């Protein structure tokens, strides 16, 4: 930092990455020094590593609300998890249904570039991708997803008909009820024909009953129960947007996808550790996360895959991760990620209240003191008034459930996860103290119970109240309430007549780390794809500012932000020759 830069320096770019927590560092140290074993070996040192790996997997599964520990696969981070999911879903589709059927993916127009750029690459490889629009606050509409799924079904039906050869090829273009949709070879015997019709009837009965019917099980399994390929290979919608903080209605979106036979993945990288995330409550088949977003180490993450739904590996090689993801596991990183997530989940209610209160105060100040500044994304709660035509909105807990679904922290069976962990670990009589770093005792439910109570309103449980959590308030900052539909820490704006990158440079010199949007887009001259998808003009989108606050923000830091941000916006306008 240069001598003229302001002190203290305030880090307000936690959506890009977070500092490593002391608990995570402490948990990692044994595996960076003495406990250096490779979990794939069979000797004592390797067995200790395998036990620690199994304990970490069980705890991550428990914190996510997974039914089994072996539903969690460790990766290098969110980008790998997202790419593995997308490419794996496409390859699974092709393995099951052959090259004649076009794999179709549905995603949103505001996804992280890990999703969007992978989808663009897949389009060049013959995959059809639909990019759903969002509304002005960044929400994906359930009806838009349903329309896209129906459009895919119509396209798939037309494709099957067009792929049908004429009668000389001995093919039949009608299904068992006479509908021209399921191009299949004509049955060679009455027995085959009867079995095939029964298969179709069974498939349709499952669909009609509302079961979560997703064609195909684990890759390589028999899929003869499906009369023809499903229309959509995958739906992938992020849980929370990394630029504006909007939380999507994932439970409702996943339910619609499943009604149409499509598996559902959510990129939860920006959400895990900051809002309650329970894969069973969300109803997803797959979920991506990354440790460095919740005070874990860089370079490690995970992909949750629901039991019964699997995809081919992205990385070929050894038999690590039960043969699904090759490469020696980053055990120190995995243990650090587990410790960080455990700490984040246990502190979730307290942190959400503290940081959302600071965020709301900061938003109010920026909007009232900076003409031409507008809040982007879902509304902030705790309204004191309106500024520049933008009204704050106070939303009730009832609307919270409607907006984002009853996603809550896991309250799962320790016994089930412990069983899976013990089956992964090598047998041996030696005591392994390293396992204690990441594993709770077999009867310990305290960490999860502190963040979830199935008997109560899940949103209220996650957020809490100042009466229930008397220690959540910061000195001088009233306890807040997590805004339904918006991440607690993100305050995002567009500023008229301001270049966002210039503003970030000026803020840096003024002692504030901020961003214009996704850190992965730094250096791009294009306006934010998220803001343009939300309806902002390119010129407005170029004036974007994202502030993502730390849970540990102090009164002094908040007051300094309230001073430095308006001053930097004014200076940016003056330097642009436009004036304040």
Query: Approximately what portion of the residues adopt beta-strand conformation?
Result: 5-15%
Shape: globular
Tally of alpha and pi helices: 18
**What's the mean pLDDT score?**
78
In the sheet with the most strands, the strands line up as 2-10-9-8-7-3-4
What kind of oligomer do you see?
single chain
The separation of the N and C termini measures 28 Å
Largest sheet: 7 strands, mixed
What value does the Rg take, in angstroms? Answer: 25 Å
Number of strands: 16
Secondary structural class: alpha/beta
The amount of helix comes to 25-40%
Ranges where pLDDT stays below 50 over 5 or more residues in a row are: 174-213, 215-226, 382-482
Give a written overview of the molecule.
- This protein is of the alpha/beta class and 580 residues long.
- Helix content is 39%, strand content 10%.
- The chain contains 18 helices and 16 strands.
- It has helices at residues 22-32, 44-64, 78-97, 113-124, 142-163, 190-208, 250-259, 279-282, 331-346, 348-369, 397-404, 414-424, 446-449, 458-463, 500-510, 529-533, 538-541, 555-575; strands spanning 10-11, 72-75, 104-108, 128-132, 171-172, 184-185, 234-236, 264-267, 286-290, 301-305, 373-375, 386-387, 390-391, 490-495, 512-513, 544-548.
- The strands form 5 sheets. A 7-stranded mixed beta sheet has the order 2-10-9-8-7-3-4, with helices on both faces.
- Helix 15 (500-510) packs across helix 18.
- The longest helix has 22 residues, at 142-163.
- The protein is globular, with a radius of gyration of 25 Å.
- The two termini are 28 Å apart.
- The relative contact order is 0.17.
- The model is unreliable at 174-213, 215-226 and 382-482 (pLDDT under 50).
